[in-house]
Write a structure and sequence with these properties.
62 residues; alpha+beta; Alpha-Beta Plaits; two-stranded antiparallel ribbon; 19% strand
């Protein structure tokens, strides 16, 4: 199970705390755009990023 990343809710902060907290690098800051991006194939579903996201852009999937 993984999380769902709602880009429309994201403020695209280059200092995103949720991206920094991701232990697998599934959510990370893109080096070219300096915006948070999400790679679903790397997500383990640990949900560490869910409570940390200040905008609610990361939610747990059912």
């Amino acid at each position: 199970m993984s999380v769902k990343f709602e880009l429309s809710l994201c403020d695209r902060n280059p200092y995103c705390p949720a991206a920094k907290a991701c232990p697998t690098g599934a959510m990370h800051i893109d080096r070219k755009t300096f915006r948070p991006t999400f790679d679903d194939s790397k997500c383990t579903g640990c949900e560490v990023c869910v409570p940390i996201c200040p905008r609610g852009a990361v939610v747990a999937r059912d």
